[in-house]
């Protein structure tokens, strides 16, 4: 071998001997540090603050954030081009064909309306608009206005067509609002994605609605109603479960010394009476937990016993 080629060969050999283990060590360190500890991302979506924590590299988290943004764009009645906005614009005029996922969620919401004896009602938007909870221009409507709006909230006036995957609101002025179930649904969908992607543990927090998964137990603190953000009296130990809370303290306004909150009793059109300051449902089905937390907040004990009979594995925590 030529002298200079041989020198280069020796040099390369030394470089390899020195650098390869070094590179390997670096790789292992980054692998260990990123795999063992969760990476988190916080952002605003679904009208609230969200946080995803998973044992994956930062760059992989963006996929799930984008998924939540897309779901928000599809499901929020406030977004002009959402599927729900189209259904609402067509109320009283025409049926709207929607994506399979949206169709299935609406169908589930309708079934949960029947199951909760009407306490969970995804058609309350006309009433919600009267109170200004849709746009933040709060007001106290007259009894006559509420009476008129309530006429547009009958679940029988929502027509589903399984074959066409179409939704039709029979009367003009009717409106779908999935705000009482969407966060739970998005958690369930994300969990399915995590499993598909081979992610074995993690936590999700969509505006205080928590979902934890993996082999280990997690301790989840439940917000103290009317306390400081993050203040708590109750801590639940959960595993592969959703912990979803509804409370009057989440959104409300005050007028003439009275407080009006955002959870509407469909039988009166008024903010529901306060039986408990908050209702938390723990189960392995986030969509169910979300709808039930809203419904049981309104109906209290009579619905708790019925739902416990229907779903033996739910846990209800009231404060
Ligand atoms: P949550 O925070 O899950 O209890 O849901 C409350 C949100 O659901 C409200 O902001 C409304 O958009 C909607 N909502 C209010 N009252 C009801 C109800 N009785 N049934 C279903 N959704 C409701
Ligand atoms: Mg809910």
- N-to-C terminal Cα separation, in Å? 83 Å
* Discrete helix count: 9
Largest sheet: 7 strands, antiparallel
Unique ligands:
adenosine monophosphate, magnesium ion
Question: What distinguishing features does this structure have?
Answer:
alpha+beta; 7-stranded antiparallel beta sheet; 3-stranded antiparallel beta sheet; globular; binds adenosine monophosphate; binds magnesium ion
Task: Describe what you observe in this structure.
This protein has 319 residues and is α+β, with helices and mostly antiparallel strands. 40% of the residues lie in helices and 23% in strands. It is built from nine helices and 14 strands. It has helices at residues 3-36, 58-75, 83-89, 100-115, 125-131, 143-150, 182-196, 286-299, 301-310, and strands spanning 39-45, 48-54, 96-97, 158-161, 166-169, 202-206, 209-213, 218-223, 232-238, 241-247, 252-255, 258-261, 278-283, 315-318. The strands form four sheets. The protein has a seven-stranded antiparallel beta sheet, covered by helices on one side. It has a three-stranded antiparallel beta sheet with strand order 3-5-4, with helices on one face. A hairpin with a 2-residue loop joins strand 1 (39-45) and strand 2 (48-54). Helix 8 (286-299) runs antiparallel to helix 9 (301-310). The chain is globular. Magnesium ion binds at residues 180, 246, 290-291, 293-294.
